Amino acid sequence: MCGIVGIAGRSEVAPRLVDALKRLEYRGYDSAGVATISSGRLDRRRAEGKLVNLEERLDGEPLPGTVGIGHTRWATHGAPTESNAHPHFCNGVAVVHNGIIENFAPLRAELIAGGSVFHSQTDTEVVAHLLAGYRTDGLTPREAMGKAVPQLEGAYALAVLFEDEPDMILGARSGPPLAVGHGKGEMFLGSDAIALAPFTDEITYLEDGDWVVITRDGLEIYDEGGSRVERASQLSQGAAYVVDKGNHRHFMEKEIHEQPEVVSNTLSHYVDFAEGRVKLEAAQLDFANLDRLAMSACGTAYYAGLIGKYWFERFARLPVEIDVASEFRYREMPLPGRMAALFISQSGETADTLASLRYCRANNLSIGAVVNVRESTIARESDAVFPTLAGPEIGVASTKAFTCQLSVLAALAMIAGRARGTLSAEDETDMVQALVTAPRLFNEVIRAIEPQIVTLSRELARFKDVLYLGRGTSFPLALEGALKLKEISYIHAEGYAAGELKHGPIALIDENMPVIVIAPHDRHFDKTMSNMQEVAARGGQIILITDEKGAASASIDTMATITVPEAAEIIAPMIYSLPIQLIAYHTAVFMGTDVDQPRNLAKSVTVE
Ligand code: F6R
Predict the structure, then answer these.
(1) Which of 346, 577, 596 to mutate to test the pocket of ligand 1 (most atoms within 8 A of CB)?
(2) How far is the CA of 398 from the centre of ligand 1 (A)?
(3) Which of 9, 353, 512, 528 has its CA 20 to 30 A from that of 553?
Protein backbone atom coordinates (compact mmCIF):
# COMPACT_ATOMS: atom_id res chain seq x y z
CA MET A 1 0.00 0.00 0.00
CA CYS A 2 2.21 2.81 -1.28
CA GLY A 3 5.98 2.74 -1.14
CA ILE A 4 8.09 5.59 0.17
CA VAL A 5 11.78 6.32 -0.12
CA GLY A 6 14.18 9.08 0.84
CA ILE A 7 17.86 9.69 0.11
CA ALA A 8 20.23 12.15 1.76
CA GLY A 9 23.00 11.61 -0.76
CA ARG A 10 26.16 13.01 -2.25
CA SER A 11 25.26 12.58 -5.92
CA GLU A 12 22.11 13.18 -7.97
CA VAL A 13 19.23 11.34 -6.28
CA ALA A 14 16.31 11.40 -8.73
CA PRO A 15 17.51 8.34 -10.72
CA ARG A 16 18.25 6.49 -7.49
CA LEU A 17 14.87 7.36 -6.02
CA VAL A 18 13.24 5.92 -9.13
CA ASP A 19 15.42 2.83 -8.87
CA ALA A 20 14.26 2.30 -5.27
CA LEU A 21 10.65 2.96 -6.26
CA LYS A 22 10.90 0.20 -8.87
CA ARG A 23 11.57 -2.18 -6.03
CA LEU A 24 8.55 -0.80 -4.18
CA GLU A 25 6.18 -0.69 -7.14
CA TYR A 26 4.56 -3.92 -5.97
CA ARG A 27 3.03 -1.80 -3.18
CA GLY A 28 1.05 0.37 -5.55
CA TYR A 29 1.21 1.72 -9.06
CA ASP A 30 -1.60 4.24 -9.43
CA SER A 31 0.83 7.16 -9.65
CA ALA A 32 4.37 8.05 -8.63
CA GLY A 33 6.41 11.11 -7.80
CA VAL A 34 9.73 12.42 -6.53
CA ALA A 35 10.80 15.70 -4.93
CA THR A 36 14.28 17.11 -4.36
CA ILE A 37 15.86 20.24 -2.99
CA SER A 38 18.33 21.92 -5.31
CA SER A 39 19.90 25.37 -4.86
CA GLY A 40 17.63 25.88 -1.85
CA ARG A 41 14.47 25.21 -3.90
CA LEU A 42 11.99 22.37 -3.51
CA ASP A 43 10.77 20.90 -6.79
CA ARG A 44 8.93 17.76 -7.85
CA ARG A 45 7.91 15.59 -10.80
CA ARG A 46 4.76 13.48 -10.62
CA ALA A 47 2.93 11.25 -13.09
CA GLU A 48 -0.27 9.24 -13.17
CA GLY A 49 -0.05 5.50 -13.62
CA LYS A 50 3.02 3.31 -13.57
CA LEU A 51 6.51 4.37 -12.66
CA VAL A 52 7.54 4.25 -16.28
CA ASN A 53 5.43 7.40 -16.82
CA LEU A 54 7.39 9.18 -14.11
CA GLU A 55 10.64 8.04 -15.70
CA GLU A 56 9.53 9.52 -19.01
CA ARG A 57 8.61 12.76 -17.28
CA LEU A 58 12.04 12.90 -15.64
CA ASP A 59 13.76 12.19 -18.97
CA GLY A 60 12.09 15.27 -20.43
CA GLU A 61 12.44 17.39 -17.29
CA PRO A 62 15.30 16.14 -15.09
CA LEU A 63 15.18 16.97 -11.41
CA PRO A 64 18.54 17.99 -9.94
CA GLY A 65 19.42 17.62 -6.26
CA THR A 66 21.25 15.32 -3.87
CA VAL A 67 18.52 15.09 -1.22
CA GLY A 68 15.06 13.84 -2.12
CA ILE A 69 12.01 11.71 -1.41
CA GLY A 70 9.83 9.52 -3.62
CA HIS A 71 6.51 7.70 -3.62
CA THR A 72 4.59 5.08 -5.52
CA ARG A 73 0.87 5.22 -4.77
CA TRP A 74 -2.00 2.85 -4.11
CA ALA A 75 -4.91 5.26 -4.04
CA THR A 76 -7.01 5.42 -0.87
CA HIS A 77 -8.29 9.02 -0.74
CA GLY A 78 -8.81 10.63 -4.12
CA ALA A 79 -8.56 9.33 -7.68
CA PRO A 80 -5.19 8.25 -9.11
CA THR A 81 -4.57 11.63 -10.78
CA GLU A 82 -1.40 13.69 -10.96
CA SER A 83 -2.77 16.25 -8.49
CA ASN A 84 -3.34 13.48 -5.93
CA ALA A 85 0.11 11.99 -6.55
CA HIS A 86 2.71 12.45 -3.83
CA PRO A 87 4.89 14.32 -2.85
CA HIS A 88 2.42 16.89 -1.53
CA PHE A 89 3.73 20.41 -1.04
CA CYS A 90 2.80 23.24 1.27
CA ASN A 91 4.91 26.36 1.78
CA GLY A 92 8.32 24.73 1.54
CA VAL A 93 7.33 21.37 3.03
CA ALA A 94 7.12 18.17 0.96
CA VAL A 95 5.50 14.96 2.24
CA VAL A 96 5.20 11.39 1.02
CA HIS A 97 3.01 8.99 2.95
CA ASN A 98 2.08 5.34 3.13
CA GLY A 99 -1.10 4.51 5.10
CA ILE A 100 -4.27 6.36 6.04
CA ILE A 101 -4.63 9.42 8.27
CA GLU A 102 -7.99 8.49 9.74
CA ASN A 103 -8.72 11.90 11.27
CA PHE A 104 -7.79 13.79 8.12
CA ALA A 105 -11.33 15.19 7.68
CA PRO A 106 -11.48 17.18 10.96
CA LEU A 107 -7.83 18.21 10.57
CA ARG A 108 -8.50 19.40 7.03
CA ALA A 109 -11.64 21.31 8.08
CA GLU A 110 -9.68 23.02 10.85
CA LEU A 111 -6.83 23.91 8.51
CA ILE A 112 -9.23 25.27 5.87
CA ALA A 113 -10.97 27.34 8.53
CA GLY A 114 -7.52 28.73 9.36
CA GLY A 115 -6.99 29.80 5.75
CA SER A 116 -5.23 26.76 4.20
CA VAL A 117 -5.91 26.01 0.55
CA PHE A 118 -5.77 22.34 -0.42
CA HIS A 119 -4.70 21.13 -3.84
CA SER A 120 -5.59 17.43 -3.62
CA GLN A 121 -8.24 15.12 -2.23
CA THR A 122 -5.70 13.08 -0.29
CA ASP A 123 -5.53 12.56 3.44
CA THR A 124 -1.76 13.11 3.18
CA GLU A 125 -1.91 16.79 2.33
CA VAL A 126 -3.01 17.67 5.88
CA VAL A 127 0.43 16.58 7.10
CA ALA A 128 2.17 19.06 4.79
CA HIS A 129 -0.18 21.84 5.96
CA LEU A 130 0.26 21.02 9.64
CA LEU A 131 4.06 21.01 9.37
CA ALA A 132 4.14 24.16 7.24
CA GLY A 133 1.89 25.90 9.80
CA TYR A 134 4.25 25.09 12.66
CA ARG A 135 7.22 26.26 10.60
CA THR A 136 5.46 29.57 9.96
CA ASP A 137 4.95 29.82 13.72
CA GLY A 138 8.74 29.67 14.04
CA LEU A 139 9.23 26.03 15.10
CA THR A 140 12.24 24.07 13.85
CA PRO A 141 11.59 21.00 11.64
CA ARG A 142 12.15 18.73 14.68
CA GLU A 143 9.76 20.77 16.82
CA ALA A 144 7.20 20.88 14.00
CA MET A 145 7.41 17.11 13.60
CA GLY A 146 7.17 16.62 17.36
CA LYS A 147 3.96 18.66 17.39
CA ALA A 148 2.37 17.35 14.19
CA VAL A 149 2.91 13.61 14.58
CA PRO A 150 0.91 13.20 17.82
CA GLN A 151 -2.09 14.79 16.09
CA LEU A 152 -2.22 12.11 13.40
CA GLU A 153 -4.54 9.15 13.96
CA GLY A 154 -4.40 6.05 11.83
CA ALA A 155 -1.56 4.37 10.02
CA TYR A 156 1.34 6.16 8.48
CA ALA A 157 4.92 6.01 7.36
CA LEU A 158 6.08 9.46 6.32
CA ALA A 159 9.10 11.08 4.72
CA VAL A 160 9.33 14.87 4.79
CA LEU A 161 11.58 17.52 3.22
CA PHE A 162 11.90 21.11 4.42
CA GLU A 163 13.06 23.59 1.79
CA ASP A 164 15.01 25.72 4.26
CA GLU A 165 16.79 22.70 5.79
CA PRO A 166 18.09 21.17 2.57
CA ASP A 167 20.36 18.56 4.17
CA MET A 168 17.82 16.62 6.19
CA ILE A 169 14.88 14.27 5.73
CA LEU A 170 12.42 13.54 8.51
CA GLY A 171 10.59 10.24 8.74
CA ALA A 172 7.89 8.84 11.04
CA ARG A 173 6.12 5.55 11.46
CA SER A 174 2.94 4.41 13.15
CA GLY A 175 1.76 1.14 11.67
CA PRO A 176 3.40 0.67 8.27
CA PRO A 177 7.12 -0.10 8.40
CA LEU A 178 9.93 2.36 7.79
CA ALA A 179 13.56 1.35 7.44
CA VAL A 180 16.61 3.62 7.68
CA GLY A 181 19.57 2.58 5.54
CA HIS A 182 23.15 3.46 6.53
CA GLY A 183 25.39 4.22 3.54
CA LYS A 184 28.93 5.58 3.27
CA GLY A 185 28.42 9.27 3.82
CA GLU A 186 24.80 8.87 2.75
CA MET A 187 21.60 7.86 4.53
CA PHE A 188 18.38 6.37 3.20
CA LEU A 189 14.75 5.84 4.17
CA GLY A 190 12.49 3.21 2.66
CA SER A 191 9.33 1.20 3.17
CA ASP A 192 11.42 -1.96 3.25
CA ALA A 193 14.99 -3.17 3.11
CA ILE A 194 14.58 -4.53 -0.42
CA ALA A 195 13.97 -0.98 -1.67
CA LEU A 196 17.29 0.05 -0.18
CA ALA A 197 19.18 -3.08 -1.20
CA PRO A 198 21.13 -1.44 -4.08
CA PHE A 199 22.43 1.20 -1.66
CA THR A 200 23.10 -0.57 1.63
CA ASP A 201 22.44 -3.68 3.67
CA GLU A 202 22.82 -1.98 7.06
CA ILE A 203 19.31 -1.20 8.23
CA THR A 204 17.73 0.31 11.33
CA TYR A 205 14.01 -0.39 11.67
CA LEU A 206 11.92 2.28 13.36
CA GLU A 207 9.60 1.05 16.08
CA ASP A 208 5.95 1.97 16.09
CA GLY A 209 5.54 5.63 17.07
CA ASP A 210 9.17 6.55 16.29
CA TRP A 211 10.21 9.45 14.15
CA VAL A 212 13.65 10.09 12.72
CA VAL A 213 15.89 12.80 11.33
CA ILE A 214 18.43 11.69 8.74
CA THR A 215 21.26 13.66 7.23
CA ARG A 216 24.13 12.44 5.06
CA ASP A 217 26.12 11.71 8.19
CA GLY A 218 23.72 9.98 10.53
CA LEU A 219 20.37 9.69 12.19
CA GLU A 220 18.52 10.76 15.32
CA ILE A 221 15.53 8.71 16.44
CA TYR A 222 12.79 9.96 18.77
CA ASP A 223 10.08 7.82 20.34
CA GLU A 224 6.43 8.79 20.48
CA GLY A 225 6.99 10.69 23.71
CA GLY A 226 9.62 12.80 21.89
CA SER A 227 12.59 11.33 23.80
CA ARG A 228 15.78 10.57 21.91
CA VAL A 229 16.24 6.78 21.60
CA GLU A 230 18.75 4.38 20.08
CA ARG A 231 17.60 1.55 17.82
CA ALA A 232 20.11 -1.10 16.84
CA SER A 233 21.01 -1.54 13.20
CA GLN A 234 21.18 -4.95 11.57
CA LEU A 235 22.38 -6.50 8.37
CA SER A 236 19.46 -7.09 6.05
CA GLN A 237 19.08 -10.03 3.72
CA GLY A 238 17.28 -7.78 1.24
CA ALA A 239 20.48 -7.07 -0.65
CA ALA A 240 21.06 -10.77 -1.26
CA TYR A 241 18.06 -11.03 -3.52
CA VAL A 242 18.14 -10.28 -7.19
CA VAL A 243 14.78 -8.88 -8.09
CA ASP A 244 14.43 -9.44 -11.82
CA LYS A 245 12.34 -11.62 -14.09
CA GLY A 246 15.21 -13.65 -15.50
CA ASN A 247 14.01 -15.25 -18.73
CA HIS A 248 10.36 -15.07 -17.76
CA ARG A 249 7.69 -12.76 -19.16
CA HIS A 250 6.31 -11.96 -15.74
CA PHE A 251 7.37 -12.20 -12.12
CA MET A 252 4.35 -14.43 -11.54
CA GLU A 253 5.55 -16.91 -14.16
CA LYS A 254 9.04 -16.88 -12.63
CA GLU A 255 7.66 -17.34 -9.14
CA ILE A 256 5.46 -20.28 -10.19
CA HIS A 257 8.52 -21.95 -11.72
CA GLU A 258 10.67 -21.27 -8.65
CA GLN A 259 8.43 -23.40 -6.46
CA PRO A 260 10.38 -26.67 -6.63
CA GLU A 261 13.43 -24.87 -5.26
CA VAL A 262 11.82 -22.63 -2.66
CA VAL A 263 9.52 -25.34 -1.32
CA SER A 264 12.56 -27.58 -0.99
CA ASN A 265 14.46 -24.82 0.88
CA THR A 266 11.51 -24.22 3.16
CA LEU A 267 10.90 -27.89 3.94
CA SER A 268 14.58 -28.44 4.73
CA HIS A 269 14.25 -25.87 7.50
CA TYR A 270 11.62 -27.97 9.32
CA VAL A 271 12.26 -31.53 8.25
CA ASP A 272 15.23 -33.80 8.83
CA PHE A 273 14.99 -35.81 5.63
CA ALA A 274 17.86 -38.12 6.59
CA GLU A 275 16.22 -39.09 9.89
CA GLY A 276 12.72 -39.15 8.41
CA ARG A 277 11.46 -36.87 11.21
CA VAL A 278 10.28 -33.31 11.57
CA LYS A 279 12.62 -31.05 13.52
CA LEU A 280 11.00 -30.58 16.90
CA GLU A 281 13.41 -27.78 17.73
CA ALA A 282 11.82 -25.73 14.93
CA ALA A 283 8.58 -25.59 16.91
CA GLN A 284 9.13 -22.88 19.55
CA LEU A 285 5.44 -23.09 20.53
CA ASP A 286 4.37 -25.41 23.31
CA PHE A 287 1.95 -27.44 21.16
CA ALA A 288 1.81 -30.25 23.72
CA ASN A 289 0.08 -28.05 26.27
CA LEU A 290 -2.45 -26.29 24.10
CA ASP A 291 -6.21 -26.79 24.11
CA ARG A 292 -6.78 -24.65 21.04
CA LEU A 293 -4.95 -22.74 18.34
CA ALA A 294 -6.24 -19.45 16.93
CA MET A 295 -5.19 -18.69 13.37
CA SER A 296 -5.68 -15.63 11.22
CA ALA A 297 -4.49 -14.13 7.94
CA CYS A 298 -5.82 -12.40 4.81
CA GLY A 299 -6.44 -13.52 1.23
CA THR A 300 -4.22 -16.28 -0.05
CA ALA A 301 -2.43 -16.56 3.30
CA TYR A 302 -5.83 -17.16 4.91
CA TYR A 303 -6.52 -20.02 2.50
CA ALA A 304 -3.16 -21.53 3.45
CA GLY A 305 -4.32 -21.24 7.06
CA LEU A 306 -7.62 -22.97 6.25
CA ILE A 307 -5.69 -25.91 4.83
CA GLY A 308 -3.47 -25.82 7.93
CA LYS A 309 -6.59 -26.13 10.08
CA TYR A 310 -7.42 -29.48 8.45
CA TRP A 311 -3.88 -30.67 9.19
CA PHE A 312 -3.64 -29.45 12.80
CA GLU A 313 -7.01 -30.97 13.63
CA ARG A 314 -6.35 -34.26 11.85
CA PHE A 315 -2.73 -34.95 12.71
CA ALA A 316 -2.37 -33.15 16.05
CA ARG A 317 -6.01 -33.34 17.25
CA LEU A 318 -5.61 -29.65 18.03
CA PRO A 319 -8.82 -27.63 17.51
CA VAL A 320 -8.23 -24.54 15.37
CA GLU A 321 -10.24 -21.33 15.41
CA ILE A 322 -9.56 -19.49 12.14
CA ASP A 323 -10.92 -16.32 10.64
CA VAL A 324 -9.92 -13.65 8.15
CA ALA A 325 -7.97 -11.02 10.05
CA SER A 326 -10.34 -8.16 9.19
CA GLU A 327 -13.05 -10.03 11.15
CA PHE A 328 -10.81 -11.67 13.75
CA ARG A 329 -9.53 -8.32 15.03
CA TYR A 330 -13.01 -7.01 15.81
CA ARG A 331 -14.86 -10.17 16.85
CA GLU A 332 -13.83 -9.90 20.47
CA MET A 333 -13.62 -13.67 20.56
CA PRO A 334 -12.92 -15.20 23.95
CA LEU A 335 -9.34 -16.39 24.19
CA PRO A 336 -9.31 -18.83 27.10
CA GLY A 337 -6.08 -20.14 28.66
CA ARG A 338 -3.91 -22.83 27.01
CA MET A 339 -4.39 -21.21 23.65
CA ALA A 340 -1.75 -19.91 21.23
CA ALA A 341 -2.16 -17.86 18.07
CA LEU A 342 -0.59 -18.34 14.65
CA PHE A 343 -0.55 -15.64 11.99
CA ILE A 344 0.34 -16.15 8.36
CA SER A 345 1.61 -13.41 6.09
CA GLN A 346 3.91 -13.18 3.11
CA SER A 347 4.75 -9.51 3.65
CA GLY A 348 4.53 -9.57 7.43
CA GLU A 349 3.01 -6.10 7.24
CA THR A 350 -0.69 -6.70 6.50
CA ALA A 351 -2.55 -4.24 8.73
CA ASP A 352 -5.46 -6.49 9.71
CA THR A 353 -3.20 -9.45 10.45
CA LEU A 354 -0.94 -7.27 12.57
CA ALA A 355 -3.93 -5.86 14.46
CA SER A 356 -5.19 -9.40 15.14
CA LEU A 357 -1.74 -10.34 16.41
CA ARG A 358 -1.76 -7.35 18.75
CA TYR A 359 -5.23 -8.31 20.00
CA CYS A 360 -3.90 -11.76 20.93
CA ARG A 361 -0.77 -10.24 22.44
CA ALA A 362 -2.94 -7.98 24.63
CA ASN A 363 -4.73 -11.16 25.76
CA ASN A 364 -1.43 -12.77 26.74
CA LEU A 365 -1.38 -15.50 24.11
CA SER A 366 1.89 -16.94 22.79
CA ILE A 367 2.24 -15.74 19.22
CA GLY A 368 3.69 -17.61 16.26
CA ALA A 369 4.04 -16.19 12.76
CA VAL A 370 4.55 -17.87 9.40
CA VAL A 371 6.16 -15.04 7.43
CA ASN A 372 8.21 -14.59 4.31
CA VAL A 373 9.80 -11.25 5.15
CA ARG A 374 11.97 -12.05 8.16
CA GLU A 375 12.48 -8.44 9.20
CA SER A 376 8.79 -7.54 8.99
CA THR A 377 6.72 -6.09 11.82
CA ILE A 378 4.68 -9.28 12.25
CA ALA A 379 7.89 -11.30 12.56
CA ARG A 380 9.38 -8.85 15.01
CA GLU A 381 6.28 -8.82 17.21
CA SER A 382 5.95 -12.61 17.42
CA ASP A 383 7.35 -14.96 20.03
CA ALA A 384 8.07 -17.66 17.46
CA VAL A 385 8.87 -16.98 13.82
CA PHE A 386 8.37 -19.74 11.25
CA PRO A 387 10.00 -18.45 8.10
CA THR A 388 8.92 -19.38 4.61
CA LEU A 389 12.04 -19.34 2.47
CA ALA A 390 10.31 -18.24 -0.71
CA GLY A 391 12.59 -15.25 -1.43
CA PRO A 392 11.03 -11.98 -2.52
CA GLU A 393 7.62 -12.41 -4.11
CA ILE A 394 7.09 -9.52 -6.49
CA GLY A 395 4.04 -10.59 -8.55
CA VAL A 396 1.01 -9.21 -6.75
CA ALA A 397 -0.75 -12.58 -6.97
CA SER A 398 0.80 -14.82 -4.37
CA THR A 399 2.08 -18.18 -5.68
CA LYS A 400 5.35 -19.43 -4.23
CA ALA A 401 4.66 -17.83 -0.86
CA PHE A 402 1.42 -19.85 -0.70
CA THR A 403 3.06 -23.23 -1.31
CA CYS A 404 5.84 -22.34 1.12
CA GLN A 405 3.21 -21.41 3.72
CA LEU A 406 1.60 -24.81 3.12
CA SER A 407 5.01 -26.47 3.56
CA VAL A 408 5.53 -24.76 6.92
CA LEU A 409 1.99 -25.49 8.12
CA ALA A 410 2.28 -29.17 7.14
CA ALA A 411 5.54 -29.47 9.07
CA LEU A 412 4.13 -27.59 12.07
CA ALA A 413 1.04 -29.78 12.17
CA MET A 414 3.33 -32.83 12.18
CA ILE A 415 5.53 -31.31 14.88
CA ALA A 416 2.39 -30.59 16.92
CA GLY A 417 1.15 -34.15 16.28
CA ARG A 418 4.41 -35.57 17.56
CA ALA A 419 4.49 -33.25 20.59
CA ARG A 420 0.91 -34.20 21.47
CA GLY A 421 1.43 -37.90 20.89
CA THR A 422 -1.20 -38.08 18.17
CA LEU A 423 1.12 -38.83 15.25
CA SER A 424 2.90 -42.16 15.33
CA ALA A 425 6.58 -42.41 14.39
CA GLU A 426 5.62 -44.56 11.36
CA ASP A 427 3.06 -42.06 10.12
CA GLU A 428 5.56 -39.26 10.65
CA THR A 429 8.20 -41.09 8.60
CA ASP A 430 5.70 -41.83 5.83
CA MET A 431 4.66 -38.21 5.72
CA VAL A 432 8.26 -36.98 5.69
CA GLN A 433 8.90 -39.34 2.80
CA ALA A 434 5.97 -37.75 1.00
CA LEU A 435 7.32 -34.27 1.71
CA VAL A 436 10.68 -35.29 0.22
CA THR A 437 8.98 -35.99 -3.08
CA ALA A 438 7.24 -32.61 -3.26
CA PRO A 439 9.97 -30.59 -5.07
CA ARG A 440 10.42 -33.34 -7.69
CA LEU A 441 6.68 -33.60 -8.22
CA PHE A 442 6.45 -29.83 -8.61
CA ASN A 443 8.96 -30.05 -11.46
CA GLU A 444 7.19 -32.97 -13.09
CA VAL A 445 3.78 -31.35 -12.84
CA ILE A 446 4.89 -28.03 -14.31
CA ARG A 447 6.54 -29.75 -17.24
CA ALA A 448 3.66 -32.15 -17.81
CA ILE A 449 0.66 -29.87 -17.57
CA GLU A 450 1.71 -26.40 -18.67
CA PRO A 451 1.25 -26.95 -22.43
CA GLN A 452 -2.24 -28.38 -21.84
CA ILE A 453 -3.11 -25.49 -19.54
CA VAL A 454 -2.02 -22.95 -22.17
CA THR A 455 -4.56 -24.49 -24.59
CA LEU A 456 -7.28 -24.70 -21.95
CA SER A 457 -6.70 -21.12 -20.82
CA ARG A 458 -7.29 -19.83 -24.35
CA GLU A 459 -10.80 -21.33 -24.08
CA LEU A 460 -11.37 -20.17 -20.51
CA ALA A 461 -10.58 -16.60 -21.49
CA ARG A 462 -13.95 -16.56 -23.39
CA PHE A 463 -16.02 -17.03 -20.24
CA LYS A 464 -17.32 -14.45 -17.81
CA ASP A 465 -17.80 -16.69 -14.77
CA VAL A 466 -16.03 -19.77 -13.43
CA LEU A 467 -16.90 -21.97 -10.47
CA TYR A 468 -14.28 -23.92 -8.47
CA LEU A 469 -15.25 -26.90 -6.32
CA GLY A 470 -13.36 -29.08 -3.86
CA ARG A 471 -13.76 -31.10 -0.66
CA GLY A 472 -11.48 -31.42 2.35
CA THR A 473 -8.22 -29.54 1.79
CA SER A 474 -9.29 -29.10 -1.84
CA PHE A 475 -12.05 -26.75 -0.65
CA PRO A 476 -9.65 -23.96 0.43
CA LEU A 477 -7.78 -24.66 -2.80
CA ALA A 478 -11.02 -24.02 -4.70
CA LEU A 479 -11.26 -20.68 -2.89
CA GLU A 480 -7.65 -19.92 -3.76
CA GLY A 481 -8.16 -20.94 -7.42
CA ALA A 482 -11.10 -18.56 -7.71
CA LEU A 483 -9.20 -15.72 -6.03
CA LYS A 484 -6.20 -16.22 -8.30
CA LEU A 485 -8.31 -16.22 -11.47
CA LYS A 486 -10.38 -13.17 -10.58
CA GLU A 487 -7.53 -11.03 -9.33
CA ILE A 488 -5.39 -11.29 -12.44
CA SER A 489 -7.77 -12.13 -15.30
CA TYR A 490 -10.77 -10.13 -13.94
CA ILE A 491 -13.02 -13.10 -14.78
CA HIS A 492 -15.60 -13.52 -12.06
CA ALA A 493 -14.91 -16.73 -10.13
CA GLU A 494 -16.29 -18.38 -7.00
CA GLY A 495 -14.94 -21.20 -4.89
CA TYR A 496 -17.30 -23.56 -3.08
CA ALA A 497 -17.15 -26.64 -0.93
CA ALA A 498 -18.36 -29.30 -3.38
CA GLY A 499 -20.99 -30.44 -0.89
CA GLU A 500 -22.48 -26.93 -0.80
CA LEU A 501 -23.24 -26.98 -4.52
CA LYS A 502 -26.79 -28.14 -4.12
CA HIS A 503 -27.48 -25.56 -1.43
CA GLY A 504 -27.52 -22.71 -3.91
CA PRO A 505 -24.76 -22.34 -6.49
CA ILE A 506 -26.10 -25.19 -8.61
CA ALA A 507 -28.71 -22.70 -9.83
CA LEU A 508 -25.92 -20.96 -11.77
CA ILE A 509 -24.82 -24.02 -13.71
CA ASP A 510 -25.21 -23.84 -17.48
CA GLU A 511 -22.95 -24.15 -20.50
CA ASN A 512 -21.59 -20.64 -19.90
CA MET A 513 -20.07 -21.37 -16.53
CA PRO A 514 -17.18 -23.81 -16.54
CA VAL A 515 -16.74 -25.70 -13.28
CA ILE A 516 -13.20 -26.51 -12.20
CA VAL A 517 -13.25 -29.50 -9.89
CA ILE A 518 -10.19 -30.18 -7.74
CA ALA A 519 -10.42 -33.86 -6.87
CA PRO A 520 -7.40 -35.97 -5.96
CA HIS A 521 -8.29 -39.66 -5.70
CA ASP A 522 -8.54 -39.42 -1.90
CA ARG A 523 -11.19 -40.39 0.66
CA HIS A 524 -13.48 -37.61 -0.64
CA PHE A 525 -13.22 -38.57 -4.30
CA ASP A 526 -16.47 -40.53 -4.69
CA LYS A 527 -18.50 -37.81 -3.06
CA THR A 528 -16.93 -35.14 -5.24
CA MET A 529 -17.69 -37.32 -8.28
CA SER A 530 -21.38 -37.29 -7.33
CA ASN A 531 -21.24 -33.49 -7.28
CA MET A 532 -19.61 -33.55 -10.71
CA GLN A 533 -22.44 -35.72 -11.99
CA GLU A 534 -24.89 -33.13 -10.71
CA VAL A 535 -23.05 -30.47 -12.70
CA ALA A 536 -22.90 -32.64 -15.84
CA ALA A 537 -26.61 -33.45 -15.59
CA ARG A 538 -27.32 -29.71 -15.87
CA GLY A 539 -25.17 -29.15 -18.94
CA GLY A 540 -22.23 -27.71 -16.99
CA GLN A 541 -18.76 -27.92 -18.53
CA ILE A 542 -16.26 -29.58 -16.24
CA ILE A 543 -12.54 -29.13 -15.96
CA LEU A 544 -11.33 -31.92 -13.72
CA ILE A 545 -8.01 -31.67 -11.92
CA THR A 546 -7.14 -35.07 -10.54
CA ASP A 547 -4.51 -37.84 -10.55
CA GLU A 548 -4.19 -40.95 -12.72
CA LYS A 549 -6.50 -43.02 -10.52
CA GLY A 550 -9.06 -40.25 -10.42
CA ALA A 551 -8.91 -39.75 -14.19
CA ALA A 552 -9.36 -43.50 -14.74
CA SER A 553 -12.38 -43.75 -12.47
CA ALA A 554 -14.17 -40.54 -13.45
CA SER A 555 -16.74 -41.76 -15.97
CA ILE A 556 -17.80 -38.35 -17.14
CA ASP A 557 -17.29 -36.09 -20.16
CA THR A 558 -15.08 -33.14 -19.34
CA MET A 559 -14.01 -30.02 -21.15
CA ALA A 560 -10.51 -30.98 -19.99
CA THR A 561 -8.98 -33.37 -17.50
CA ILE A 562 -5.70 -32.23 -16.02
CA THR A 563 -3.84 -35.16 -14.57
CA VAL A 564 -1.11 -34.76 -11.98
CA PRO A 565 0.92 -37.60 -10.43
CA GLU A 566 -0.53 -39.34 -7.40
CA ALA A 567 0.45 -37.39 -4.30
CA ALA A 568 0.19 -38.30 -0.62
CA GLU A 569 -2.49 -36.41 1.27
CA ILE A 570 -0.02 -34.15 3.08
CA ILE A 571 1.46 -32.79 -0.16
CA ALA A 572 -1.63 -32.88 -2.39
CA PRO A 573 -2.63 -29.24 -1.66
CA MET A 574 0.84 -28.07 -2.68
CA ILE A 575 0.85 -30.11 -5.89
CA TYR A 576 -2.72 -29.10 -6.82
CA SER A 577 -1.79 -25.45 -6.32
CA LEU A 578 0.22 -25.62 -9.54
CA PRO A 579 -2.66 -26.24 -11.98
CA ILE A 580 -4.77 -23.53 -10.37
CA GLN A 581 -1.92 -21.02 -10.49
CA LEU A 582 -1.09 -21.88 -14.09
CA ILE A 583 -4.73 -21.67 -15.16
CA ALA A 584 -5.01 -18.17 -13.66
CA TYR A 585 -1.69 -17.08 -15.11
CA HIS A 586 -2.22 -18.26 -18.69
CA THR A 587 -5.84 -17.10 -18.79
CA ALA A 588 -4.72 -13.64 -17.70
CA VAL A 589 -1.98 -13.65 -20.34
CA PHE A 590 -4.61 -14.45 -23.01
CA MET A 591 -6.86 -11.72 -21.66
CA GLY A 592 -3.95 -9.31 -21.99
CA THR A 593 -4.19 -8.03 -18.42
CA ASP A 594 -1.32 -6.68 -16.38
CA VAL A 595 -0.42 -9.96 -14.71
CA ASP A 596 2.12 -8.75 -12.18
CA GLN A 597 0.34 -5.55 -11.28
CA PRO A 598 -3.40 -6.17 -11.63
CA ARG A 599 -5.66 -3.17 -11.38
CA ASN A 600 -6.66 -1.81 -7.97
CA LEU A 601 -4.40 -4.21 -6.06
CA ALA A 602 -1.16 -3.88 -4.14
CA LYS A 603 1.19 -6.44 -2.72
CA SER A 604 1.45 -5.25 0.83
CA VAL A 605 -1.84 -4.15 2.38
CA THR A 606 -0.84 -1.86 5.21
CA VAL A 607 -4.23 -0.16 5.53
CA GLU A 608 -7.55 -1.56 6.79
C1 F6R B 1 -3.62 -12.86 -3.45
C2 F6R B 1 -2.77 -12.22 -2.48
C3 F6R B 1 -3.40 -11.59 -1.30
C4 F6R B 1 -2.50 -11.76 -0.06
C5 F6R B 1 -3.10 -10.99 1.13
C6 F6R B 1 -2.28 -11.17 2.39
O7 F6R B 1 -2.89 -13.45 -4.47
O8 F6R B 1 -1.58 -12.16 -2.64
O9 F6R B 1 -4.68 -12.10 -1.07
O10 F6R B 1 -2.39 -13.11 0.24
O11 F6R B 1 -3.16 -9.62 0.81
O12 F6R B 1 -0.99 -10.68 2.24
P13 F6R B 1 0.18 -11.12 3.20
O14 F6R B 1 0.41 -12.56 2.99
O15 F6R B 1 1.34 -10.28 2.80
O16 F6R B 1 -0.29 -10.83 4.60
Answers:
(1) 346
(2) 6
(3) 512
